[in-house]
Specification:
Oligomer: single chain
Structural class: alpha/beta
Shape: elongated
Helix content: 40-55%
Distance between the termini: 61 Å
Amino acid sequence: MPVQNQILLQTKLHRPHVPHDLVERTRLMERLDDGIEYPLTLVCGPAGYGKTTLICTWLDHLAAGRGKQAPSLPSAWLSLDERDSDLNLFLRYFIAALRTIFADACEETLMLLKASQQPPQAVVYAMLCNEIEELPGEAILVLDDYQFISGKAVHNLLIELTRHWPKPLHLVLISRIDPPLPLTSLRAKSRIREIRTQDLRFTLQETVAYLSQSQLSLLSESTLQLLEERFEGWPPVCIWLPFHCVPLAAKNQFS
């Protein structure tokens, strides 16, 4: 089946559910709020560092009016996989995500993608950029698991967007590795806000907050500090693994 005729999976456009008992990470919420002023936000770190959970929580905060932006911006979500490295399929999902906010977004670009004879990529890039620029309002679009994208076509599309960024779009990339974008240039031009592994690590205060929620607040201050130092703020230890599930050899180091 030609890519332009493939049925899109609507579940890829659904934001993951966020548990209600997560530790409040105010410092990261504020960084993300401030990042709205930048066209691009990159959240980059290894698997298990809570990148997706962080962004989902932030979007929930915005929707609830708890962010700095007033009124809060609407948001769309796209979870990527290896198949989305195909430019035509990626763009159809990209537009489908935008259409969860703006029902008629990028109609002419979509027509180009559905044509039996595909136009040059430069034509598609220009049309998409122009139609995003004409959107009736600003919006956040999150691309989750961007590390699955391979080849040059999709990367080149985003590079083109960075050169002529359409003002209504704030793009959030979640990735385990640096995307092949001109990051140095974007930093120099103040067009990107980054949240890295060091930022995602739990601080001592966040570790204490989690343990308190887990009814483990009787641990001594020195034990808490050793726990934070030993695991270097690795969120899975602080969030998903109860302390009694830590291997015995590790437990003994805190006793």
